Amino acid sequence: MKTLLGHAQRQGAGGAIVLHAEEQHSPKRIPGNLELFDRDEADIVAGSRMAAGGNAFRTTLPYKFIADRCLTALENAVIGPGPAEYQSGYTCFNRRALETILFERLSCSFDFDPEMRAMAHVEGLWVPRSPSRPFMRARNPA
After folding, report:
1. Angle 9-15-18 (CA atoms, 0-180°, nearest 5)?
2. Sign of dihedral through CA atoms 36, 40, 44, 46?
3. What is the pLDDT of residues 124-133, one digit of tens each?
4. Is the whole model's pTM more than 0.70, yes or no?
5. Helix 62-79 vs helix 112-122: angle between axes, to the nearest 10 degrees?
6. Dihedral sign, Cα of residue 30, residue 129, residue 7, residue 135
7. Which element (helix H / strand E) includes 56?
C-alpha cells in the first residue's frame, strides 16, 4: 500500500484508492465517494461494513464481527471518537491526505490501516463513514 500511496504522491495524483482483492467491498461506491473530495467534504473515505447501511453482521463470521467491534471500541477509546471500523479493505485518499500523513514512517504489516486512520485523526483530516456492502459471493464459509 505504501508503494501505491508514494507513487500517487510523487506523480501529483489528486488521490489514491485502495481496494483489497478479497472482494469484501464492492467498488460501486467509488464514484460517489470521490464526489466527497470534489465538494471538499472528506479527506479520506473509508468503506465500513459496520456503519449504518453496511451489512457486516450478515456477511461476516460472528467471532470476526465481535472481535472487530471490540477492537474498534478500544481504538476509539485510546485515540478518540473515530471511524466505524479501523480495519478496512476499501479506502480513498485525497491529495491533502497524501501530503499530510507521513505514511512512509508507518508499519508495513496488517496494522498499517489503523495507523493511517489514527494519523488522519491526529492531523485533523475528515474521514466520514461510508457504508460498504461486500459482494455476496465473498461471504465467509461457516
Report:
1. 100
2. negative
3. 888 776 655 5
4. yes
5. 30
6. negative
7. helix 56-59
